[in-house]
Amino acid sequence: MEGKRRGYEWSHRESGFLTKIKEFTRVLLTDLTNGRSPLILIDRFRSYCAVPNANCFCASDLPYGKEALTLRTKSRAHRLVVMLRVMLIVQKLLQENKHSSKRDIYYTYPSLFLDQSVVDQAINDICILMQCSRHNLNVVSAGNGLTMGWIRFSEGERKFDCISSPNSVHPVPVHVEEVKVFQRLANDQFCNVNHCIVITGRGYPDIPTRRFLRLLVENLRLPVYCLVDCDPYGFDILTTYRFGSMQMAYDTKHLRVPEIRWLGAFPSDSERYFVPKQCILPLTAEDKRKVEAMLLRCYLQREVPQWRLELKLMLQKGVKFEIEALSAHALSFLSDSYIPSKIDHKLIM
Ligand SMILES: [Zn+2]
Description:
Elements: H1 2-33, E1 40-44, E2 65-69, H2 74-96, H3 102-108, H4 110-113, H5 116-130, E3 146-149, E4 151-154, E5 159-162, E6 173-176, H6 179-187, H7 190-194, E7 197-200, H8 207-220, E8 225-227, H9 232-243, H10 252-255, E9 261-264, H11 269-272, E10 281-282, H12 285-295, H13 298-303, H14 305-317, E11 319-320, H15 333-344
Helix pairs in contact: 1-2, 2-5, 3-5, 12-14
The protein binds zinc ion (ZN).
Zinc ion is lined by residues 48-49, 51, 54, 56, 58, 298.
């Protein structure tokens, strides 16, 4: 029964989006048949701006402006035509209960779409108009992420469960930046020892990996920690999980994980954990530019000033190091000492 009720809810929601698409095209057709040029206003969103301490609305789910699509200029008209074409494909997907990737959609009319980014923008525009996320439109993508640990997916109920023994502590998802570190933790039986779940997005996390993590945190109400390299890219990955990316600012509210805590590696960890000198590298000119630009992001000062202080320290010291540098003294240092002691002693941010 549970499955059937759920199925009804799902199809009910999908028909809601179909109704919205029909209503949208009906208004557009009415305008055209009455000789009026249609005007479509699309809210604009952004994850952050570069005005620290400003009273901005970044990442607060409020749009900061509107963009107008009309038939008056060629480029805007093309964008509207593309959006309608993509909408037609989405309508078909929803009606037939099928799924498609953004890439598949691009290949349906490559001569019209010209570039993948044009399709991506159309999907983003439709999501804003329909006030939904991409997966609501049955547009999906295969993720690059990997996961291991105490988790089970029940297909019938479409939900995740923790698998834990009666004596275990609560499973803790830990995100790690790199596959090398993920493999190290797997070799050390880290999940079995700590009854936890470990995820890697293999560098910058893609949408499915971020959505998966968000679902885990939402459904299982677990604490979540992020372990990244101590360099500007590691820090940027951490902020992508917590605040979203600038490019996908609208989808951010469905993807961000505000609960995520920074486990390491902090610039201040190099002294605390005696990282050998030869493992510490100087920041390049590009690294420095990236850090300086990140320091301006409005959400850092507003929401995680302690993260910002560590980022400032990275710039002051002018150095970076990889997570693996922490293991220079012992192969299993991350699994045996670093991660457990950081969580136990609350050396997290
Ligand atoms: Zn802002």
